Every structure is written in C-alpha cells, then in structure tokens.
Amino acid sequence: GNSVTQMEGPVTLSEEAFLTINCTYTATGYPSLFWYVQYPGEGLQLLLKATKADDKGSNKGFEATYRKETTSFHLEKGSVQVSDSAVYFCALRVPGSSYKLIFGSGTRLLVRP
Amino acid sequence: DAGVTQSPTHLIKTRGQHVTLRCSPISGHKSVSWYQQVLGQGPQFIFQYYEKEERGRGNFPDRFSARQFPNYSSELNVNALLLGDSALYLCASSLVVGGATGELFFGEGSRLTVL
User: Fold this and answer.
1) How many CA atoms lie within 13 A of B18 on its CB side?
2) N or C: which end of chain B has fewer CB within 10 A?
C-alpha cells in the first residue's frame, strides 16, 4: 500500500544549524509529494511540494528534492531559526485519489537560541 | 479573507455519546475533506466531499458520517463514541476535487476528548 515514513523526533538544533528531516515513501504510480508544517496552536500549512521526479520544491529557505530512485523527499534548510520550531509532516498524493493525502507521523523540530 | 473555520475548538464527551463537528471552507472552495489526527501521529483521511457528494472515504467505521451543505460547509458526525476517537479533527478545503498539484487549506481543528 501507499505509505510515508519519517525520521522520529524530536530534532533539537541550535539556531543557524543545518537541518535535514528524512522522508521516504512507498506508492503506486507517480505520487505528488508535500511537506506540511504545524506551528503550535495552528493548523497545517503547506510548506512546499514537488509533483514529478527530480523536481525541487522550495519555500522560506526550506528545500526538498523528489528522488524517485531512492523514493525519498528529504527536507533541508541551511540555517534554522527559533521561529522554525514546529512539527513537520511529509505527505503524498497518489494520482487518481482526488485530494486524499497520506501523511507520515510527523517530526518535531525544536530550535534553541 | 477568512480561512477554514471549525467549531467547536474543544469539546469533551463521554463514551457512547455522539458528536457533530462543523467546518466552513474558504470562500469559493467547493471541496471539503476531513482528517483525524491522533496525538503523536499524522493526520488520517476520513472523508472528502465535493459539490455535496462524497468523493472519497478512508478506512473508518460506519459510526463516522459526514455531509456537505449547499453553501459548501460541512459536518462530521461520530456516533457511539469510543475512547479511541479522542483526537484532533481537521477540516481542509480546496477549490476543486482533482489534480495532482492543488493545495489543501487546513483549519485549526476541533479537539475531541472522550472520557
């Protein structure tokens, strides 16, 4: 079946450190891939997306590249800020499944000053 | 413009009771989806509605039901509540129902506690 696996958290970093959150997926066909972020007390927000192999999604300094050969979509940021502290969810959508998103379990990021 | 709004934000029920959660999509959005997020897990798809018709259903028991109204708002109903139904229930809206690249806009959720 279709599924998403994320690295377990929490991930604790100092401000300006480099961030990587790993995400791998299993899916039929060619899924679209997403990263959503959930800040404390807020709803999920789309952070970035990629719809085909080798696409790179980017937003707010975050990047992720759709790697079909390794079925991965790792999230990276070169220099994190305290305000990046949140829970990050990797998700996929399989073609033909309308807007059903399949989420990973989430990775909590804590950035210390 | 208002985002996706959900009510109530928090509620407490006891086992066996039923609950109704409400969602108003972003103006102009015709599709509404519901997700359940158990603490420490990612959201799980429950339903999708478009133009008042059910377009998708996740792996949830028949105790879960939903509907969409002519103004595109939606209700999620859960009957015979179990302790395991305690979760954050998220509503999301979108312009259309299909397509690989479209975005879902999520509300802040309704947190249900079942005692």
Assistant:
1) 11
2) N
- B9 token code pair: 């934000």
With residues binned 3-state (H G I as helix, E B as strand, rest as coil), the percentages for chain A, rounded to 5, are 5, 50, 45
Phi, psi of B30 (to 5 degrees): -105, -5
CB contact under 8 A, A98 and B43: no
Contact check, Cβ <8 Å, A51/B33:
no
Q: From the list A89, A99, A106, which residue is nearest B102 (CB)?
A: A99
H or E, element range at B16: none
Looking at residue A4, its amino acid is: V
Amino acid at A53: A
pLDDT tens-digit series, residues A9-28:
899 999 999 999 999 999 98
> Which one of A89, A95, A99 has the shortest CB-CB distance to B42?
A89
Instruction: Please state, in angstroms and rounded to a whole number, the distance separating the CA atoms of residues B33 and A29.
Output: 23
